[in-house]
Model the fold of this input.
Amino acid sequence: MMIYLDHAATTPIADEVLDAMLPYLREQHGNPSSIHRAGRAARDGVERAREQVAAALGVHPLDVLFTSGGTEADNQAVKGIAWAARAAGRGRHLVTTAIEHHAVLDAVRWLADAQGFEVTVVGVDAAGVVDPDRLLAAVRDDTVLVSVMAANNELGTVQPLDVIGPALAERGVALHSDAVQAFGRTSLEPAAWAIAALSLSAHKFNGPKGVGVLMLRRDVAATPVLHGGGQERGVRSGTYNAAGIVGCGVAAELTATTAADEIARLRDLRDRLIAGLCAVDGVTLNGSSTARLPHNANVAVTGCDGESLMLAMDAAGVCVSTGSACQSGAAEQSHVLAAIGAPSDRAHVRLTCGRDTAVDDVDRAAACFAEAVERLRAAGGGFV
Ligand code: PLP
Done:
């Protein structure tokens, strides 16, 4: 039987979510932009989902836009806000962090390389947390956008947006946050933290793949990336993915209403898992032990190749992920591990729990990990 511990990569769709979606793939097939009854029925589903997402985030439904996922939401936020600010003559300087997902980091780099923007990329400490003072020191008079993820996808480190957001608001600078990994796993208060734009992806919280959310406050100008039919306040054109959006709404509601209990349960599982993994000689935790998502264990392992370890665990039925380099350093280390100065001669494996993970799963995964490490070390580490 498979033990799936890669919920940071994607999560299984919840039964309630699939059940809510099916009618929109069958009888409610209208285009939500059509004004006849078939269209209105589909539109009702989309607008209910918008309200569910808005309630889950504590924002106004009109601030919620649906996208094709986290990547699109990040690109639309970063490029759209930057372009609109430059067009208004407000400046062309952007600030972000070294541990952002490529959907933000590469979008920002492209704006610098191909679009005439200037970018400051702020580093993080050895635990993978950005220092608010260091970030705020990078802000200039011509800074038009700061993008800081709410929680990192590899290390699970939670960033201090509660401090960063209000400080940026005081200086009149828009904050975008990639909350793809954070939603439902740590507190997220877009209104109190003065977040101008925030990205979510439904498949990370037991919703369907191919649908996401860009929370874009109505007072924040953003130039569209996609031009077309003018849906979603004219910011995101394209025929509505009604079934996906309905699923996203139900998943958001389910996640928000169960978050308190689920976070406590996951935290216990995570701590048990980390204790099991770190009981093996030469294994240490990557990232912060406190500012950490409740489902994330990420460890460094001496004397082993990361991909070999991941494949050995896969062969035993346990799905985990790796961000490691091989011993020679020839394979590229992830930019996140590089940013925290993680040694490149170790295996780095990430195990992430979810709604369906039980105590027995983490115990078996830890035992499988210990066995695989021992076997690989005995065979020379599995280095290629
Ligand atoms: N941002 C973060 C932090 C992520 O972890 C991911 C997915 O792994 C994305 C953005 C991209 O989301 P999507 O796969 O929905 O495009």
Remarks:
- The chain is about 40% helix and 15% strand.
- The pocket of pyridoxal-5'-phosphate is lined by residues 69-71, 74, 101, 103, 149, 153, 178, 180-181, 201, 212 (CB under 6 Å).
- Residues 324-330 have pLDDT under 50 and may be disordered.
